[in-house]
């Protein structure tokens, strides 16, 4: 699967918002309350991205398959205070449901890891919902492991997130 990758600009906020909203609505169905997911719209997400992209230090990426936008990622320095400055984070990586199972997420995760390594990070973390076994299996196949850190978030109801870590070989 050939995956196109571009560093996203604010002009791409509509595409990124659409991808994130549609992927959340599909991936978290049955995990996150339907009432909450119904409020997680493309328009609202795009508005948020238009505001935060210029103000944040993270890098935003748009992935495409068959010349059509199909995925997005946000990466940068890890936000967790208990981690050293040599830790990066994939704070978001999502694909439209039509792209699931096509193999495009594998080059996307490797792109993110490669980019974070280029930025000088020795380790990478991400947070995944405990109740999302599909995503957990994907990250484990990519070399991530649960590092023991847990946090509770509230997205329509309290949910548990697990921190997964990846360490680059020396």
Automatic annotation (TrEMBL):
PROSITE patterns registered for this protein in UniProt: GNAT
GO molecular function, one term: acyltransferase activity, transferring groups other than amino-acyl groups
Superkingdom of the organism of origin: Bacteria
N-acetyltransferase domain: residues covered: 3-169
SUPFAM superfamilies (alphabetical): Acyl-CoA N-acyltransferases (Nat) (SSF55729)
One Pfam family this sequence matches: Acetyltransf_1
Ranges in a coiled coil: none
InterPro entries linked: Acyl_CoA_acyltransferase, GNAT_dom
Protein name: N-acetyltransferase domain-containing protein
């Amino acid at each position: 699967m050939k995956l196109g990758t571009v560093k996203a600009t604010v002009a791409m906020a509509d595409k990124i918002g659409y991808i994130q909203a549609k992927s959340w609505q599909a991936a978290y169905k049955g995990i996150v309350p339907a009432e909450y997911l119904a409020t997680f719209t493309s328009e609202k997400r795009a508005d948020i991205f238009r505001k935060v992209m210029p103000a944040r230090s993270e890098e935003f990426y748009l992935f495409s398959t068959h010349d059509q936008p199909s995925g997005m990622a946000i990466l940068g320095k890890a936000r967790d205070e208990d981690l050293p400055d040599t830790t990066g984070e994939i704070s978001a990586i999502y694909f439209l449901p039509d792209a699931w199972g096509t193999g495009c997420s594998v080059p996307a995760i490797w792109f993110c890891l490669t980019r974070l390594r280029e930025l000088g990070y020795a380790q990478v973390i991400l947070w995944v919902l405990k109740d999302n076994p599909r995503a957990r299996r994907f990250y484990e196949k990519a070399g991530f492991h649960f590092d023991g850190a847990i946090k509770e978030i509230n997205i329509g109801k309290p949910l548990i997130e697990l921190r997964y870590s990846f360490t680059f070989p020396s």
